[in-house]
Amino acid sequence: MGNAVLLISRHSPPDPLLNFYLDRGDTIFVAGPAPAEGDTAAEGYRLLPWNPRSPISARNTLLTLENESVALDEVILIYEHGEESRPLHQIAGSIIDISLDSAIRGTLFIAKEVLNHFDQRGKGELSLILCGYPASVRPTLEASMEGAFREMGSALFQVYRESSIRIRGFEDHREDPKEFYTAICELLRREDEKSWGRWNRPGDRGGLRSYFKRAD
User: Fold this and answer.
1) Are 51 and 10 in contact (CB under 8 A)?
2) CA–CA separation, 46 vs 143, rounded Å?
3) Rounded average pLDDT over 50-79
4) String of DSSP letters for 69-114
5) Is 3 within 8 Å of 73 (Cβ atoms)?
6) Chain segment 17-32, per-residue pLDDT in tens
7) pLDDT of residue 7
8) On the CB side of 142, how many CA atoms lie within 13 Å of its CA?
9) Which of 39, 86, 93, 133 has CB atoms 3.0–4.6 Å from 35's, for a disulfide?
10) Beta-strand relationship, 45-49 and 74-80
11) Where are the extended beta strands (E) located within the chain?
12) How far is it, in rounded angstroms, from Cα 42 to Cα 194?
């Protein structure tokens, strides 16, 4: 019998990750935006509508599972960059407000509920994925939100290092995010114990063994 897995993303869940957990025989839940009218329901997982800007929505996402006696084994929390590439002085204040509210506060809201669920269960595995802006010089707004997600992860690694809750992170800034997710799946198949408690980033050399290296 497979694990109970929750994927959390403000966008559609990446196909490589979905296929990895489906092939493994897991029960998959996806917390994300409700599908647009006319969209067909995806096969293989159950969608839990999640509004990142609402702490109540974050609580209800986990409460829905707990009320059904679902005990999550793994949670994957995904941050994917947006498309706001303009200089900061050209961005409307309302756009900044909405972006930060969704990306930063929303991430903290749902992470809090996931960790509370794991704490009550006495164990759990949380993987953070930072699919960053694919440029050497990233726009200020995008860089600010990525930095908040990265620092949240670094703090969690320290706080839960001696806990029964295991946390790790994966980060990349590739033009094609599918390559990144595929590489993550390869590492997941290896069940590399060294990946826990740190950010794992692309290595300088080719090959799966060097694809991820410990962050400084």
Assistant:
1) no
2) 32
3) 96
4) T---SEEEEEEE--S--S-GGGS-HHHHHHHHIIIIIHHHHHHHHH
5) yes
6) 999 999 999 999 999 9
7) 97
8) 19
9) 39
10) unpaired
11) 4-8, 27-32, 45-49, 74-80, 124-131, 165-172, 199-202, 212-214
12) 34
Per the confidence metrics, is the pTM higher than 0.85? yes
- Conformational region of residue 56, where left means phi above 0, alpha means psi within -120 to 50, and beta covers everything else: alpha
| Average pLDDT estimate for 139-161 | 95
- Which tokens is 105 given? 């506060």
Q: How far apart are CA 165 and CA 196, in angstroms?
A: 10
* Tokens describing residue 101: 């509210």
Mean pLDDT of 32-40: 61
Core vs surface per residue 178-212: b (16+ CB within 10 A) or e: eebbbbbbebbeeeeeebbbbbbbbeeeeeeeebb
Model pLDDT for residues 165-179, shown as the tens digit of each residue:
999 999 999 888 999
Structure tokens at 128: 């953070």
Burial track 141-168 (b if 16+ CB lie within 10 A, e otherwise): bbbbbbebbbebbeebbeebeeeebbbb
The answer to whether the CB of 215 falls within 8 A of the CB of 201 is: yes
Mean pLDDT of 111-117: 98
CA distance from start to end of the chain: 38
Tokens describing residue 2? 């497979």
**Side-chain half-sphere exposure of 68, counting CA atoms within 13 A:** 9
Burial track 22-52 (b if 16+ CB lie within 10 A, e otherwise): beeebbbbbbbeeeeeeeeeeeebebbebbb
From CA 198, how far away is CA 212, in angstroms rounded?
11
